[in-house]
Each structure stands twice: as structure tokens, then as C-alpha cells.
Fold this sequence. Notes:
two-stranded antiparallel sheet, alpha+beta, two-stranded parallel sheet, 4 strands, 13% helix, 17% strand
Amino acid sequence: MPVENHGHRGARGLRPENTLPGFAHALDLGVDAIELDVGLSADGVVVLNHDQTLSPTNLTDTEPVHPNDP
């Protein structure tokens, strides 16, 4: 039986978890599949986040991804 390599939340430990850069890096490393965490916000928006709640202890402010990002 062949072994499959999965990118857990993308490239966990190498790039931010559950992010496009993390998924892209995992694919660059040659993973066979990517595991990600999907949830719904209170207003019904789909979000990628491992934890059930958001708090300052599990969030990191990063640079803007798009020109109009705050």
C-alpha cells in the first residue's frame, strides 16, 4: 500500500497555517493532499481556522495580502 504525504493545515510550522502561502508551499514540497480546517462565522461566512473561537492569543497580525487590505 503506497504512503501518502498530507500537508496538515498546509505547511504547518513552515508557513502560517490554513493560508494560501501555506498550501502553496506544501504543494511545492510535493504533498499528495492538503488538510484544512473549515468553519462558519456567526454571520455565516466560511472561514479557514483551526480553533472554534478567535482570540488575541491565537491570531497574528500580518502584512496586507491585497493592495486594499487594512
